Request: fold
Amino acid sequence: MENKSIWNKYTDEQLEELEKLNAGYIDFLSGCKTERECTEKVVSDAEAAGYRKLDDLIGSGEALKAGDKVYRVNMGKSVLMFNIGDDPLCQGMNILGAHIDSPRMDVKQNPLYEDSDLAYLDTHYYGGIKKYLYVTIPLALHGVFVKKDGSKVKIAIGEDPADPVFFISDILIHLADEQMKKTGRHIVEGEALDLCIGNRPLKIGEGEDAEGKGDSKEKAEAKDLVKKFALKLLKDKYGVEEEDFISAELEVVPAGRAREAGFDRSMILSYGQDDRVCAYTSYQAMLEVEKVKRTACCILVDKEEIGSVGATGMQSRFFEDTVAEIISLYRKGKAAEGEECCGGIDESLALRRCLANSNMLSSDVNAGFDPLYPSSFEKKNTSFLGRGPVFSKFTGSGGKYESNDANAEYIALLRNIFDKGDISYQFAELGKVDVGGGGTIAYILALYGMNVIDAGVAVLSMHSPWEATSKADVYEACRGYKVFLKDADRL
Reply:
């Protein structure tokens, strides 16, 4: 079987829709480079579309009924959306699940230091990256300081054209003989990924210089003057002290807007498309789908790139606990209408049945075929840019290790509804059997017994500072996600 480019299948009206969706996607990528920024944007768009905060309903005891739309945020870094359907919740949901974290560098808790008249922030890289790709490129600093009184100071420095940017230096080629003998993994060591943030010293007094002339107090004050000047600038503009780094979450990411790529403007080049391309298309599909038969759900979570761990990762109980709250308010609504929900079973069993009877698309990217590196791919089972969203029956590595493996019956259901909806799609693995591999959140949701398969967008240069996708795939993925939410039924 051979898939073909999907570009020429679209009408002029569809091409206009494609460009509109991708224009919004470019803005999303450019303004949402952290989990917190993504969550704030999704919540803003959801509220504008009529979604209400679930915690408000829990607090007031208000019941849920078919047609209601609610969302819930977890610690500002993940968000769930629900569109309550006509079918009883115990019969399951149709779920789209993506992650909104991306590989990057995180600033350490005690990061600021000075060496040789240069000030630095010490970092710890997050997720799988080729470390050498992050040197000598313009970098931005995004995140939040949380002060001891609980107040928050948000920063995003390096995105506005008037902003300064930051960088990580590299050794010049003339002196790089030792470096060039190293393997790619060690060309740049993790502890060398320190962000250069300044070179100008603080002026400590009239008639004194940075050499520390004068008494011992003046000499002490003359130490680390570049670091002190950086701290002064932070305090003047943001009101933060050095100790506030302890309770800060600051992410170092490539600076600059997402851009159209190619003479034909057919592609998008941007940081963070793994997995914000699937996050954006998933929540846009949720916003566009109105009345649904089965309850529709969108999961946008944190920490996938480091194993889905922690309170905001998929392995936490936040999703399960939220579905339990949904069921409780839904049963209350049914009782008010004089109806018995799910045959009168208790809420715990109703929750288990709801999760087990659900269908899910783990909306995550796949590696697009790169003709410059053909030896890493097996062409018959590889995804290509511009040929539609990618289903992956399994991911994992080394003999499907740590992989979800979707049932053939579920794949047949998806083929049926996608074909009926005129959605183009492809099936692929992530590289050759003994070369490729990768993880998603699919296996975690499969633990509930639900049907799960990976379904996302093909990406070139995945996990690099700038990744590439096809506009056609972005559009077709969103179309496919809408068909799934509306038409996927129980097996």
Observations:
- Residues 12-31 form the longest helix (20 residues).
- The mean pLDDT is 93.
